[in-house]
Structures are given as C-alpha cells and as structure tokens.
Amino acid sequence: MVKKKVLMAEGNLMMVKVDIKAGFVGDIDYHPEEQLCYVERGIIEFELSGKKRMLRQGDVQYVPANAKHQVKVIDDCTLLDVFTPLRKDLL
C-alpha cells in the first residue's frame, strides 16, 4: 500500500518519493527532522498538530520538527517528501 524510494540524500537534505494507495491511513508520526511534503498527484487529508487540511496535486505542506502529523489517502497519490537533516531511519 505504501512504496518509498529515496531519490537523493546528500549534505543535510533528503528527498523521498512515496506512492500510496487510496484508503491508507498512516499512524500518527513525528520526527526531529523538518519536512516538506509536495503532492505530485492524488488527494490526501493531512493532519498537523490537530488541524486537518486537504492537499491536492501541486500543494505543499510544511511539517516542523517534532510536530505530530498523520495522513489519510483519499485518492491514490505520489508524494515528494524533503527532509532536513537526513532521516537516517529511511536510508
């Protein structure tokens, strides 16, 4: 249901491509890295610190370090996630 591919990890930046099928509901997540989430295609409901926002193709969501967040996939999607510093758990 979720497929991740590290596209680049150099210096203090990392980009990960994530393909997720409709119906997926992620666990509540938080991590010490800052994150940008770009929706390449599809629709997701993104909850950040208790506030929900619908994201569609072309939308970007900023996630501060250690902020609790969760996604619910409405339509099959491809996300590009950028992290700083590198998320070692994804390498």
UniProtKB/TrEMBL annotation:
InterPro entries: Bacilysin_H2HPP_isomerase, Cupin_2, KdgF, RmlC-like_jellyroll, RmlC_Cupin_sf. This is Putative pectin degradation protein. Residues 18-83 form the Cupin type-2 domain. Pfam families: Cupin_2 (PF07883). The lineage of its organism: Bacteria, Bacillati, Bacillota, Bacilli, Bacillales. It comes from the Bacteria. SUPFAM superfamilies: RmlC-like cupins (SSF51182).
